[in-house]
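Take a look at this chain, C-alpha cells included, and explain the fold to me:
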Amino acid sequence: MVRDGLRSLIRLQADFELAGEASNGEAAVAMAGLLKPQVIVMDMSMPELNGVEATQRIKREQPNVKILALTVHDDPSYVRRFINAGASGYVLKRAGGAELAAAIRAVAAGESYLDPGLTSEVIANLFRQPNVPTDGQVDALSEREATVIRNVARGLTNKEIAAKLDISVKSIETYKARAMEKLSLRSRAELVRFAADRNWLIDA
C-alpha cells in the first residue's frame, strides 16, 4: 500500500521519473546498483535487510546517490542511525504528498531534509550524550528480557511481540520494564540506540 502511494505520487510530478521499486532490502541494494537512481526513498522496516543496513551498503557502492529515509519512527535514535548510515533526509510516513515531494527535491539538489513533524525534543536528543549500559548490566538480562527489548527496538508493538513469543501483553510489559531498569535506560529512544550499538537490530 505504501509503495502504491509513492508510485502514484512520483508519477504525478512532472520533474520525477520512477526508475524502479523493491519489496525488500536486498532487492533495494541490487536494484540501486543496476538502475543508478539519483534519489532512493528508503523504508526502515523491510524483510531480509532493514533500511539502515541497505543505506550503508548502497552508499559504500554508490557514494553519490541521495537517500531519503521514509518511516513511521520519530525516535531520535532512528534518525541518527539513518543519518550516520549516509541518508540525506528523514521524512515521516504521516507527511503529506507535497511535503514528501519537497523532501525528494531537496535531497536531489544536494540539501539535507528533516521532517518538520519531528519535535524540538527529538532534534535535541540527536545531539544529547547517550547513556551507555555496562557489559555487567547487559549480562544481567535474562534471555527473555533480551529478546523482548530486541523486538521493542525493532519497532514491534507489545501486542506483536506477545503474539510472536506466545505470552501475554502484560508479561511483555513486565520484561520490558525489568530490562530497562537493569540497563538504566530512561526512554525508548535510548533503548533503540543501545540495541543498534549492540547490533541487536539484525536478526532480532
User: Anything to note?
Assistant: Residues 135-197 form a domain with the Arc Repressor Mutant, subunit A fold (CATH 1.10.10.10). The chain has a mean pLDDT of 84. The first helix runs from residue 2 to 12.
